[in-house]
Amino acid sequence: PGVAGIYGKPIWxxxxxxxQGIASFGVKSKxxxxxxxxxxxxxxxxxxxxxxxxxxxxxxxxxxPFLIEPFxxxxxxxxxxxxxxxxxxxxxxxxxxxEWESAPTRTMYIGSxxxxxxxxxxxxxxxxxxxxxxxxxxxxxxxxxxTTITNTDKEKALHLSILDGLxxxxxxxxxxxxxxxxxxxxxxxxxxxxxxxxxxxxxxxLSTEPADTAAVVIEEAGHYCLSFMEHQENELLPIxxxxxxxxxxxxxxxxxxxLYGKSVKDIIDGPQYGSSKTSSAFxxxxxxxxxxxxxxxxxxxxxxxxxxxxxxxxxxxxxxxxFPQYKxxxxxxxxxxxxxxxxxxxxxxxxxxxxQQMYLDNSLRGGIPVLLGEIDDxxxxxxxxxxxxxxxxxxxxxxxxxxxxxxxNFVLEPTYFSQGPGNFRDVAQNRRNDVVINPRIGSFNVKLxxxxxxxxxxxxxxxxxVVF
Length: 468
Fold this sequence. Notes:
By secondary structure, this protein is α+β, with helices and mostly antiparallel strands. It is built from 14 helices and 22 strands. The strands form 6 sheets. It has an 8-stranded antiparallel β-sheet. The chain has a 5-stranded antiparallel β-sheet with strand order 5-4-12-17-16. The chain has a 3-stranded antiparallel β-sheet with strand order 1-2-3.
């Protein structure tokens, strides 16, 4: 939902049931992407290649080495693979049972403020779980990715080298959504990756903002990627940002051709080039052993920093013991707190959750009302109508833009007390029950919308953020 709490800075993100799920994410609006915004029809085709990817290069003991990609679209377990093929004459041929049986089992789980995908590879006996959630209640925003790799073999240890991350990472450089789609190749001339600290803190930005103006604006802000292994929080993983080191000459990004001729260690130790091209952001793990029934977990943070010197500060914060686990719990609690006013208990648990989800979806269009100015006992007991010191403020409001409503220009301000503009009709209809859920707001919404009526009888198109 793009909610980071009152004292948090939200990240927007969208997912599809393709590849590893996340189709695009970024800061504030689709104009400021970390992973480029795509309409639904394009996202279905591009997410598996340009989104998050994972590569395992490994072996079991002295066994045959392998190079595989979990969630590889070419290994999707389509129902048609287990159906008979029909010849021109009408006779059925035997089903593709071998391809069907060898294909991994995949599942997607959707939470109120998280999303998880799971793959069980029965051939290589590896289970991969990926969980996404947005960082809440911090002075910097991030999409958090948690990748857990389990050795499901009961006898043999698994020796792996791993690349896990984003195949195409966009830099900071002003409003880029339209430019990426109209002059994407030209735009690469401004792109660069800078090091905040060695190989572990890449910083993605344009050299200047590509505007056709007399004044040149030097870009100081950038996107960052920080990653570490669980229980090894003090050791950041190296990030592979040079796309050619992973995919080699395969500019379609279909296969990791760079891993066929080199080891992950070779790539980590070798030079990387991030100038004048679109880069990647892969966390690299060289030679880890996972014993039977055991797991390892990689945690990665993708976000925006105002200055390159902010990245080490963010790193020290996220490296604190238990930080990701606590933030995942808080992400769940935030939504539970928002929907607590419509908590429903019936014999049908699915219906109960449906009520809460519908309240969450609709209230975010109009905003969640809170009361500011409760400074004494009187103000904490009276309504906004009775005490003019109390101000009604709607948190987290936004236009309901998404991959299918690509015509809506949503805005999630990356600030504390975040809110954005909304369409007049959406805000009006989704605030109609505010006074039922929170009676102390009084007649605020009635007065607000009556004040919007124009001399000609029409209403404005949008409702802007409130300013006191």
